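Make up an example, fold above all:
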Amino acid sequence: MGPIEEILGWVLGLIVLLDIFLLVLYARANRTIIGSHLCHGVWRLFVWVSKPLGRWRPTFLAFTGPVILVVLLFTWFLLLSLATAFVIHPNLGTGIRSNHGDTPTDFISALYVGGSSLSLIGTSDFIPQDGYFRLLFLITSLVGVSLISLTVTYLMELYNNLQERNTIGLRVHLLSAETGDAAEVVAGLGAHGMFDAGYQVIAQWALDITQGKESHHFYPILFYFRFREPYYSISRTALISLDTVTLIKSALDDDEYGWLKESAAVEQL
């Protein structure tokens, strides 16, 4: 079983690293090996559990996004620890030995050694005895450092984009006079029939929506973040945006406002 266990460990480790690469480093990845299925599974679990909660359901579902992030990061670290443990386990007592007394050969000890080799906090009492396992410990320590750095960077960028998305939602909500009605938006953009200033608002609005759309390509986990306030919902923002364009193109006079209806800003929005 020793060689099979080692091969299983290397294969599992490569799958986890590929999953991290696809989700964190390879922008616009629509499908990962583990991450996308795990995120969707946690989301469906939250939706199912929340059904009998009544008025508390929106508050409960608001925790879905952060919980998905925690579960995903924990799963990556756990699977990498398991992968390292599979490689180490058959070699406890030979290629890897304890610094104090007899070397335990159970799988929990191998898991401890594997997790410790990935961690930056402290070191274990197990010492590699040859070049192969010294190289293994070096690789796992580099993976651990890289995973922590990537995680911090990913979280910062994710929450920056989440804040920008919420800002877009609030801005569109205020443009509609806090009603969610696109007719209010058009009336405000063209007060007294003057759309000159409103055109600049539409141009910035189109730019914000474009950036928000692209941020969800880069960070698909953003789809699982939701809030109690309905105006932060991307579906509501999209609805008001499309309704506004529809009203501009269908309700305004062609002769007087043809320049606005055919403008690049309206087309982009």
Remarks:
- The two ends are 60 Å apart (CA to CA).
- DSSP finds eleven helices and two strands in the chain.
- Residues 79 and 135 are 20 Å apart (CA to CA).
